[in-house]
Amino acid sequence: KAGVTQTPRYLIKTRGQQVTLSCSPISGHRSVSWYQQTPGQGLQFLFEYFSETQRNKGNFPGRFSGRQFSNSRSEMNVSTLELGDSALYLCASSFQGMETQYFGPGTRLLVL
Amino acid sequence: AQTVTQSQPEMSVQEAETVTLSCTYDTSESNYYLFWYKQPPSRQMILVIRQEAYKQQNATENRFSVNFQKAAKSFSLKISDSQLGDTAMYFCASLSNSGGSNYKLTFGKGTLLTVNP
After folding, report:
1. Are the beta carbons of B91 and A43 separated by less than 8 Å?
2. Which residue in A6, A58, A70, B90 is deepest, having the highest Cβ count within 10 Å?
3. A4 contact residues in B (CB cutoff 8 A)
């Protein structure tokens, strides 16, 4: 089976812009989770989607949003980018949620 | 709320030797899972080993094994016969279902392991 894929792998944006990141889970997996990784805060949970519904959300401002499509692919959007949004954004998939999560290669976002 | 603590920010080991990484966690849930992930310089997060809390037997995957002490809420990772390719950041993580369908991984801050030739 193909692993979790994320696009794009690298992004450079300027403050105030918005960005959309994409994640395709492992075939058959219906749960997709997003994490933000920064040197200062470490790995932080953003949100989790299952069957097109957001089931859980971390402690992030409303500028961070996401969605999931009927084929389980997921996107996350960050509006009005701030310098502090520079991070590695990791997507992980699992079958239904309470199992091992498998990670994609991540998207590195740099906000200038 | 879940918390995961890794008290060793950095460790080093000689090739072919054994090293143990420490992790403690705190959760009020009865059903949970514990994981060790490794993140090499490529930044790809790779599953190393998984432990179900309801299982008393410690998980083992080739050169990797855990010492799961449920009462002490301790979950250490032992790497035997260390190889240069084991050099990576290692994260301990817990997964539980709190309040229905709130599945999320909670990570420790990580331990940077360097294997020296």
Report:
1. yes
2. B90
3. none
